[in-house]
From TrEMBL:
Transmembrane segments: none annotated. NCBIfam families: L28 (TIGR00009). Belongs to the bacterial ribosomal protein bL28 family. It holds the Pfam family Ribosomal_L28. Residues 1-25 are annotated as: Disordered. It comes from Kitasatospora kifunensis. One of its GO terms (cellular component) is ribosome. InterPro entries: Bacterial_rp_bL28, Ribosomal_bL28, Ribosomal_bL28/bL31-like_sf, Ribosomal_bL28_bact-type, Ribosomal_bL28_sf. This is Large ribosomal subunit protein bL28. One of its GO terms (biological process) is translation. The lineage of its organism: Bacteria, Bacillati, Actinomycetota, Actinomycetes, Kitasatosporales.
Length: 86
């Protein structure tokens, strides 16, 4: 699973791990990514989204319908759905 949120676009950040002796090595800060399944009433099916913890909270506030519209506007594609040619 890629560490990338479909809604907020959060992805890993990079930086340095600094030891007690102040030696620096590269490290990766991964976002808290979860796979969550939502019921999409307008299409009569479930959709599985890869969201960060903040993305899940956003869905709880705005609703799944508005979230799906926002993901599609960003150019994201939901699993099992093909883009219309219109």
């Amino acid at each position: 699973m890629s560490a990338h949120c479909q809604l907020t676009g959060r992805s890993p950040g990079f930086g340095n791990a600094i030891s007690h002796s102040h030696r620096r090595t590269r490290r990766r800060f991964d976002p808290n990514i979860q796979r969550k399944r939502y019921w999409l009433p307008s299409e009569g099916r479930h959709v599985r989204l890869t969201l960060s913890a903040k993305g899940i909270k956003t869905v709880d506030v705005t609703g799944i319908e508005a979230t799906v519209v926002r993901i599609r506007a960003r150019g994201g594609q939901l699993p099992g759905v093909r883009k219309s040619s219109c």
